Each structure stands twice: as structure tokens, then as C-alpha cells.
């Protein structure tokens, strides 16, 4: 090649679809991509298998690392190259964890929290558990709970909290009767559960896809049937909040690292 190229390894949920969509939105590519989707492979790998084959051509184990580890390891090397090695002793070096392992083993088993709101679980629990089984979730924690106002408020989004009347309606409903809290485990559990629940408004969920759980069991934006942890960080918070005594999960490195 006459000119250098930039090779990036990117990581996120649904990486292939999201990156493909982003590239298609680029103005300079729109006309060409509309004629042939195969041009995507000029700038991105289209499958995990191709990703793995291409990654091992450009990256070594020590270069292909995760999250903050990449940042800290590069900061360490930069400081050392600038003769500031006394600021970062050998004990401060971060352990690098290769992403090649993730490419080979596939999606990690994670946990998430599903709260079935008052009135939604007492008559439909068997059907909901059946749906969870079909979607390959494993129940690793379950308890009935009467939510306190402070905890109920903590589960609500920032948008809900901006309106005092709406906030009061949500809190009153969540604390009106017993709720059922489940901790669920499966690969990519957090996103899978959110995808199944659908939009917060049951009417919107019904319009988009009647199979959404909130479309089937929700009545209104307040009585919409379910709460689900929206991110892995929130899921860890929810697990520690509702199951401080621990969980009956199978061996899971990510949970052990979070000390759940």
C-alpha cells in the first residue's frame, strides 16, 4: 500500500449491526452502499468469525485488551517513555485481559433483575415463568417484597422524577402491594430482558409489537407490569439491593469480580 491505514477493534453490544447502520448513514457512503451491501466489508468485518481472523493479523494479546485496562496500560507506557516511571511503580500496572477469549467463547453469562410490579404477578406468575424458561433465563434469586418509598423512587428514571405528580403516582403504585423480584441469569441477560419488556408505555409497546411483555401485561405507563435493570451497572446495583444475602447462580466470573 502507498498510504497507511487505521485499524480499530471496537467493542459494544450488537457491534456488527450498530456499526453497519452507522456506516450506511454516512453521506459519502450512502449512494454506494445502496447499490451493494458487500462494500461494507471494505471497512468492517461482517461476522464474529471474520473479526477473529482479522484481529489476530493486526493485534497481539497484549494490545487487544478490555475497557479501562487499555487506557491505564497505555498511560503507564507513556509515562515510562517520558521518564516518569517513578510515578507508576510496577505494582500499579493493570492486568491486561485479552478480548480474543471473548471472541472464541461468545457472549458472557450475566445476571439481571426483573421486578414484577403489584397486581401483575399474582395471577400470571406461571405464564411469566414459562416465558422466561422459553427465553433460556435461569432464575437464581426470587423474593416477595414490599417496596419502601425510597427504594421505589430509586428504580424510576430521571424523566419520571422531574414531574412530582408522576413521581407520586409511580411510588404510590409500587408501594401499594407486594412485588415479586427475580434475579435472572443467561448470556447477555440485561439487553435480552429489556428487549423482551419493550417500551415503558404499554400502548406504544402494543403499537410496535404486541409480543412485548408490557404490551401484554401493562395497563398504563404507571401500571406497566415490569421493571428491568437497564444496564449491567444498574443490574449489579439492583442485585446488591434486593439480594444482599447472595444468589444461587452458577459459576460466573463477572459476578465474582463485582462481589455479588
TrEMBL record:
SUPFAM superfamilies: Nucleoside diphosphate kinase, NDK (SSF54919). PROSITE patterns: NDPK_LIKE. This is Nucleoside diphosphate kinase-like domain-containing protein. It comes from the Eukaryota. Residues 109-249 form the Nucleoside diphosphate kinase-like domain. Belongs to the NDK family. It holds the Pfam family NDK. Signal peptide: none annotated.
